[in-house]
Structures are given as C-alpha cells and as structure tokens.
Amino acid sequence: MAQHLTTDVVIVGAGFAGLSAADQLTAQGYGVVVLEGRSRVGGRSFGGEIAGVPIDLGAAWVGARHPELLELAQRFDCATLPQYHEGKNVLNLGGRRSTYRSDIPPVSPITLLDMGRVKYALDRLTSTVDLETPWKTPNAHALDAMTFGDWLRRKRATAKTRALMETISKVQWGCPSDEVSMLHVLTGMRALGGLDHMLAVEGGVEQDRFAVSLHQIAVRLAASLGDRVLTDTAVRRIEQDADGITIHTDGPSVQGRRVLVATAASQSARVLRAFTSRPSVLTLRSSRATAGRCTPKSSSG
Ligand SMILES: Cc1cc2nc3c(=O)[nH]c(=O)nc-3n(C[C@H](O)[C@H](O)[C@H](O)COP(=O)(O)OP(=O)(O)OC[C@H]3O[C@@H](n4cnc5c(N)ncnc54)[C@H](O)[C@@H]3O)c2cc1C
To answer: What per-residue confidence (pLDDT) applies to 94?
Structure first.
C-alpha cells in the first residue's frame, strides 16, 4: 500500500530555495516534508570532479549581495576563495569566439552602441521594480504578460545584442528569453544590483567561489534536515480543498496545511498545472511567458 505522510508544510523542490525554506520553517517549529524529483538535492547547483578535484557544474560564484548564501556557507564550513580573473576575456557571441583584454568586447561600433542602448533601457526599467512586492511595480501586469524576448524585439535589439541577452537568460533564468516573464527578469536584475553587477567579478556577484563546491552547501543543508527530504519523489498532482493540500507523487502521498512550490521559474508552470483545483494565491494565465510569472489574473498591476 502507498505510504501516506502528514505535515504542516509540503515543499516541492530541494534546490536552495526549498531547502532554505525547510530549514527556516523547521527552526520555527513547523513540520515540513521536502519532495525532490531528482535523485539528488541542490537543483541548479551540482557538483562534479575533474582529476579528483571537486568542481561546480552549475552555480559556482558568490558575492557580497549573497548574504544568505554566505551565512549558510559559514554555518556548514564551506570556505570561499577569490575568483581568478587575470588575463584575457573570452567572448562567444553567435557561435564566434574572440578574446580581449579591456572591459569593452571586440564587437563593431554599431553593436556596441546597440548593446549600450538596450542595457540603458534595461537598467532604467530595473530601477522601477518594487523588490519586496514585484507585482506592485509600475506596469507590473504588462511586464509580466510579456517575455524578455518580446521586450528585446520591441526595443529592436540587433541580432548580436539578442545573442548576448539570450546567453544571460539561459544562465540566469534557466530558459530562453522567449519563455521568461519580463517582470521576473527585472526583479532578478534588481535583486542582484543591475546588469553590470551581475556580470562583474571584483565587487560583483562572481567575486568568490567555494574551496570545495557550492553544491556541498546544499548537500550539508539537506543532511541537517534528515529524513524530511525525500529524493526521487517527483510531484505529479496537487489537490487543494478546505482541509488543506494533498500532494501525489510517484512514491508517498503527502498531506499538509500549506504547499510551497520552490522549483525553477521554468518548471513552476508545469508544477502549478498539477493543481487539480485553482490555487488560492497564484493563477497562471495562458501565455508564452511560462517562467516566473507572478501577477494574479485579476490584478490591475
Ligand atoms: C549554469 C548555471 C550557473 C549558475 N551560476 C550561478 C552562480 O555562479 N551563482 C549564483 O548565485 N547563482 C547561479 N545560478 C543560479 C542559481 O543556480 C539558482 O538561482 C539557484 O540554484 C536556484 O535555486 P532554486 O532552489 O530556486 O531552484 P532550483 O535549484 O532549480 O531547484 C528546484 C528544484 O525543484 C525540483 N523540481 C522541479 N519540478 C519538480 C517536481 N514536479 N517535483 C519535485 N521536484 C521538482 C528540481 O529537480 C530542483 O531540484 C546559475 C544557474 C545556472 C543554470
């Protein structure tokens, strides 16, 4: 017979968001169960080894704007090292690789101007984001209804600028620019201190890396949560009624008072579609922007 578990909060996803939420809820005395579809924890952080040396194959860098991650690193004894960044920069744009020494990439003056123009527009829009309540940002609804790709087309970004933004979108939001909400992109940029800061090494978000691996922090955090974390347990269906939530997985079903979906923005749409009833807080509309949408259907922005 299938196992049935009961708890206060069921968390979908054992990446840093899910594990940190579980950690904080546990510290406040709540019962939690974390359901992870993969056979490992850490999500977009993932560790590997080259010639016996541990390396990060996903998220790797940390900067001063990551206070929560640095706190976890200290707690789980994962020391940081400065990122080596002497020598030439390497640019792979539209399949063409080039190297350069200055801060200015070796592209044509027209491309450079266009990148500057688009970046200026992005920075201006980023500064309007309400970080605590992004759905209250001016024009939140319209920004959430369009994709980052839609916005780049609207700005008439050239092919080279688009190629650069496409790389940023895939690395930062885990999906192509045509799949992520523009409001989600702007909120992420605001949280990370703007595009320049996001791409910088010294003083930026790529200032340091971890002596062992960033992934180790997730592994150690999950270990501290013990059997509250279940791997190989993909969530298939979420039922919500007046009594609470029932989560159906390939393994046990779990009943809770609340569910916290902590998957990547690009996976949230699929997980939220697993709701058999209408979620009380968040409702996705049909749109190409499947990743990271946050404005409710009836919101006027
Ligand atoms: C290549 C790459 C490099 C990056 N580099 C950096 C960096 O250097 N520094 C940095 O700070 N950030 C970096 N990032 C971003 C960082 O990895 C993410 O912001 C962070 O890991 C997101 O954590 P999360 O918990 O929100 O989501 P995730 O890590 O994506 O975790 C979500 C979890 O949900 C699980 N899941 C999804 N659907 C289901 C389901 N139906 N049932 C059960 N489980 C499910 C997934 O398997 C996953 O484990 C990078 C990202 C990428 C892709």
So the answer is: 74
Ligand 1 binding pocket mutation candidate from 263, 270, 272 (most atoms within 8 A of CB) = 263
Tell which CATH classification among 1.10.10.10, 3.50.50.60, 3.100.10.10, 1.10.405.10 matches the domain 107-205.
1.10.405.10
- Considering the domain delimited by 4-80+209-263, tell me its CATH architecture: 3-Layer(bba) Sandwich (3.50)
What residue type is assigned to position 183 of the chain? L
Distance between Cα 18 and ligand 1 center (Å):
10
Q: pTM (2 decimals)? A: 0.83
The alpha carbon of 45 and the centre of ligand 1 are apart by a number of angstroms equal to 6
Atom of ligand 1 nearest to the CA of 206: 8
pLDDT at residue 92 in the model = 82
Rg over CA atoms, the chain: 21
pLDDT at 271 over 90: no
pLDDT over 70 for what percent of the chain? 87
CA proximity to 12, closest of 219, 267, 182 = 267
**Calpha distance 159→93 (Å, rounded):** 10
Task: Report the nearest-CA residue for atom 29 of ligand 1.
Answer: 43
Taking phi first (over 0 means left), then psi (-120 to 50 degrees means alpha), and beta for anything else, what does residue 232 get? left
Q: What residues does each domain of the chain span?
A: 4-80+209-263, 107-205
